[in-house]
Amino acid sequence: MRKNVFRFLSALRLTLGVLALLALTATFLDFTGTVAGWFPWLRGVQFMPAVLAGSALALAVLLVVTLLFGRVYCSVLCPLGVLQDLVRLVTFGRWRDRKFKAKPGGPLRSAIQGWTRLGFLFAFAGGGFLGLHFAWLDPYAIYGRFVSFCLAPLVKASRHADSLAAWADGAEGSFTRVVEVVVPASGFILVAAGVVAFIAAFAAWRGRSWCNTVCPVGTILGALAKFAWFRPNIVADSCVSCRACERICRAHCIHIDAKAIDHTKCVSCFDCSAVCPKGAIKWKR
């Protein structure tokens, strides 16, 4: 029964994440401004936009949710994070999950990973204060640029664009409005597509490693998730070291040999609990 519950939660998490991804994608593609009005809260709870807008309410909600349940934002609301999960699901990453064996990280390896994460975080924050754009490592901005520069011009140029524009204006019957198609410079298109392609390829190879190494939002929320009230823990007496949880973990944060989970990297996807044959992964404080 408990395993079925976690399977349901895992499927629900992915479903909600895909719906959030589709909704955000629609707002970026919506040249009429109509769809954006349907999901204003979804943009409002994106981490870096909330920081830059000084939205105390949105940041408070993200803070409380993270301290209660871990990195739910990364698992459900972050468009780049959900995209990586989908890539992992449909590519050879599924095959690699069956073959993967996590190696317990020693003190040196853990220190290198930790300093790498902090290095990217300080570079991100320092670049913003020095006048560089904050969006160069923000996952929401990376995905937004990809959709706006690479996909939106295609939608606007499609034969349905006039119909969509007229529908948004409340036109009845006659679709004659001309939609202007502005194509970004080729350099912007190549950079936006190249960054997302690299992250997608990295996700197919190493799961959520981008989120847990480069992404500054993942680093910040990971530091908070370490103190989450509801988080997965391995019960050593129940664990039979089958490594099913290690293989399916997209964040590579489970080390069965040490019976440990790195909660700063865990994105609260419930997959490990859903596949554990002995129910050895308990969600508790």
Structure notes:
With 285 residues, the protein is mostly helical. It has one domain. Helices cover 61% and strands 4% of the residues. The chain has 15 helices and four strands. The strands form two sheets. A two-stranded antiparallel sheet has the order 1-4. The protein has a two-stranded antiparallel ribbon with strand order 2-3. Strand 2 and strand 3 form a beta hairpin. The radius of gyration is 21 Å and the shape is globular. About 3% of the residues have low confidence.
Give the rounded overall mean pLDDT: 80
Distance between the termini: 22 Å
Estimate percent helicity.
55-70%
- What is the count of distinct domains? 1
Largest sheet: 2 strands, antiparallel
Question: Topology of this structure?
Answer:
Blueprint: H1 2-29, H2 40-44, H3 47-53, H4 56-69, H5 72-77, H6 79-90, H7 93-99, H8 107-129, H9 139-157, H10 161-168, H11 186-206, H12 209-213, H13 216-225, E1 231-234, H14 244-248, E2 254-255, E3 260-261, H15 271-275, E4 281-284
Antiparallel strand pairs: 1-4, 2-3
How would you summarize this macromolecular structure in one to three sentences?
This protein is mainly alpha-helical.
List keywords for this structure.
285 residues, mainly alpha, two-stranded antiparallel ribbon, 15 helices, 4 strands, 61% helix, 4% strand, globular
